[in-house]
Amino acid sequence: MSILLPDMLISKITDISIETLKQRNIKGLLLDVDNTLSTHGGQKPLEGLLEWIGHMKSCGIKLIILSNATLKRVEPFAKKIGLDHISVALKPLAFGYLRGLKALDLKAKEVAMVGDQLFTDILGANIVGIFTIKVEPISPESGISFIIRRWLEEKILKRKLKG
Ligand SMILES: [Mg+2]
After folding, report:
1. 136 CA from centroid of ligand 1 (Å)
2. How far is the C-alpha of 105 from the C-alpha of 102, rounded, in Å?
3. In angstroms, rounded to a whole number, what is the distance separating the alpha carbons of residues 58 and 69?
4. For a Cys-Cys bond, which of 25, 30, 58, 98 suits 66, CB 3.0-4.6 Å?
5. Hey, where are the domains in the chain?
6. How far away, in angstroms, is 67 Cα from ligand 1 center?
7. pLDDT in tens, 8-61
8. How much distance in Å is there from the Cα of 115 to the middle of ligand 1?
9. Distance 34 CA to ligand 1 centre (A)
10. In the chain, what percentage of residues exceed pLDDT 70?
11. What's the pTM value of the predicted model, to 2 decimals?
12. 31 C-alpha to center of ligand 1: Å?
């Protein structure tokens, strides 16, 4: 089960401080989009996101979007917030993460994945040996598959907090 657990749990991406990253020698971040940087399918950046990105870049942190969504969904948003992107990443398969590491020109141990889903973002990053940071989804999705997934995620995370 531990392969599904994040190394760090936070409320939102803008809570990540430069000190937190420096302490762990993290030099780059792979960023999920849906429910991490914006609402699901949305084009509006999370409040404070642009300032946070500017701060991270000015401190030398490399950033790239790693999303399972289509190019059509990801590209306009990536342009809007000024980041490179990998779409149709096929998380949790290792392939997309490895492309992300190559694009950042960093090693797995120098990078963290930031995302809202245990079964894609966190699982795949753990497999590749990338530090994992889970955010709370910006807004809950509707639909039965999401409801089941969120319910399972809550059970897994509760177990972690107890242990
Ligand atoms: Mg997501």
Report:
1. 10
2. 5
3. 28
4. 30
5. 2-162
6. 8
7. 999 999 999 999 999 999 999 999 999 999 999 999 999 999 999 999 999 999
8. 6
9. 4
10. 98
11. 0.94
12. 9
Q: How far is CA 111 from the centre of its chain?
A: 11
Q: Which residues surround ligand 1, an ion (CB under 5 A)?
A: 32, 34-35, 116
Secondary structure of the chain in the HEC alphabet? CHHHCCCEECCCHHHCCHHHHHHCCCCEEEECCECCCECCCCCCCCCCHHHHHHHHHHCCCEEEEECCCCHHHHHHHHHHHCCEEECCCCCCCHHHHHHHHHHHCCCHHHEEEEECCHHHHHHHHHHHCCEEEECCCCCCCCCHHHHHHHHHHHHHHHHHHHC
Half-sphere exposure for 53 (CA within 13 Å, toward CB): 19
Question: Which tokens is 132 given?
Answer: 């994992």
Ligand 1 geometric centre to CA of 57 (Å): 22
Q: How far apart are CA 85 and CA 103, in angstroms?
A: 9
